[in-house]
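Input record (one chain):
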Amino acid sequence: MAGRDPEYAIRRAVNLQDWADLTFLHWRVDAGAVQQRLPRGLEVEVLDGDAWLAVVPFRMRDVRMPGLPAHPRWSTFPECNVRTYVRGPGGRTGVWFFRLVCPRRSFVRAMRLVGLPYVHAASSAVRAPDGVHTYAFAGLGTDRDERFEAHTTVGPAIADADRSELLDALTGRWGTWGRVGRRLVHVPVEHPPWPLHDARVELTALPCDVAGLELPPGAPLVHFSPGVSTRVGSPRLVQDR
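The corresponding structure, as predicted from the sequence alone:
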């Protein structure tokens, strides 16, 4: 289930990834509108009275197979995902990605084989000397040439005692759902609890929509994490579609 601690231990990881310098941007959205965009078999998860749409830019780092070193010129790159939170068969919670963007064509092809909607687009994620994290991505909107650009200023760390149940539910997700052909696929993930910070963001470029969904007016919830080391388990076909 969603929450601060991993749902299960992955005994045999098929891939190792470090996720670094993440900004979590969360907007409240209408649950019915999100449900219309989900495949059969998945139900939008309502948290604190609403569905949530998230945009999460970060740096993927040291992507590698267990037992092998990361390729120094290939394994680190910026990524951004557009996502919501769902319940699948058996009530298992997880992430549904509407879109994932990165600049590595080979990684995009590999991830599409397990049902994740990756697209290739220009991307960057850098940390300035003053500590501000700047992210710039194309490919998030219906018009793939529109840019998303955000500048995150990191605030103080959030103590464990101050973390709300909502915050842990929005960030602590231990698997994702994908779709291969007519079947749902579940991909489990394990990592330590997120170290989280308060943060503020300046959005200097925002598409008219993200992955075909209109963002509501108003500022998002903003949180930052320096990152975690992640173990990815084997994808599992779940049910006929």
